[in-house]
Design a protein that fits this description.
Length: 296
């Protein structure tokens, strides 16, 4: 047999190379599995890279700040109107007031404010405040009560309760507990437990300094009460009245006593639409203040 030698290299098919599988190998199931595995690895690695990038972006964000705004507390001190009358001077000592115990039942009294100053016709601000009282544990300890529907207001107090008395003396004189209408301190308001409605006393530096009548049957010694016509006040007291106009349209009629012994006392009638809607009586300067606890 004759063998021919061909020094020229033979060309391989274009789809083959030194490491490229032959046609038979490409048809092998083993090669398909390798390609599928490589594709899965690529997908898994790509998914991990995407997930890690997403977490990094989320970690870089910040949540909104919380709102720490607080609401101011509101005071419960009432502002009061006026009272009128004649009267003798009251006694006063410096004993500390006796606060009363409280129970769960509550009663509320709404007071109309009357800010006033002595002098000619003046325009002043108006406010309205609500006070809440809590009945005492032992309301009868000072009985029997002396304040009644027939009690009257004068320049020096309400019946047997005179300006200048300590809170303890005033409770004995009223025959009933004076219930604080809020926190006690150097200046606060009290309401007699067993008494006609509409009465509020002001305790300042341990003594009773004024009384406010905001409703009910209590009148001055001259008979002026809540609901009385404005003309009744002006007719009774004439030139002793100083008129002060409030920004809310109401008017304060301030009775200034002519007796030198009463020069530190005033009675203030708050008038609206031609009638008395409240009045107060007391000593300067508390009687001419709004709630009575401001700096005079």
């Amino acid at each position: 047999m004759t063998v021919e030698w061909n020094p020229e290299p033979q060309e391989l098919p274009r789809d083959q190379g030194p490491f490229w599988p032959g046609a038979a190998e490409r048809r092998s199931p083993r090669w398909s599995a390798i390609l599928i595995a490589v594709a899965l690895v690529i997908l898994v690695v790509g998914g991990l890279i995407w997930w890690l990038g997403r977490d990094s972006e989320e970690d870089g964000t910040t949540e909104g700040s919380t709102d720490n705004t607080e609401e101011p507390a509101t005071a419960t001190e009432p502002s009061e109107p006026a009272a009128t009358g004649d009267g003798a001077t009251g006694s006063g000592t410096e004993d500390a007031p006796e606060p009363s115990a409280a129970t769960a039942d509550e009663t509320t009294t709404t007071l109309a404010a009357t800010t006033t100053t002595t002098g000619p016709t003046t325009t002043v601000a108006a406010t309205t405040t609500t006070i809440t009282t809590v009945p005492p544990d032992n309301p009868d300890q000072y009985g029997p009560p002396t304040l009644s529907n027939g009690s009257t207001v004068s320049t020096v107090g309400l019946d047997t309760v005179h300006f200048g008395m300590t809170a303890a003396e005033a409770q004995e004189a009223a025959g009933t507990v004076l219930v604080p209408a809020g926190p006690t301190g150097s200046c606060y308001h009290v309401v007699p437990h067993d008494a006609p409605e509409g009465i509020v006393f002001l305790v300042h530096q341990g003594t009773i300094e004024r009384v406010d009548i905001n409703g009910g049957p209590i009148t001055t010694r001259s008979g002026v009460g809540v609901g009385s016509p404005e003309t009744m006040v002006t007719d009774l007291f004439g030139d002793s009245i100083e008129r002060q106009v409030r920004v809310d349209g109401t008017v304060d009629l301030v009775f200034v006593p002519s007796d030198p012994g009463d020069r530190n006392y005033r009675v203030v009638f708050n008038v609206s639409e031609g009638a008395v809607r409240a009045f107060k009586s007391g000593r300067l300067p508390q009687v001419m203040l709004d709630t009575g606890c401001e700096s005079g």
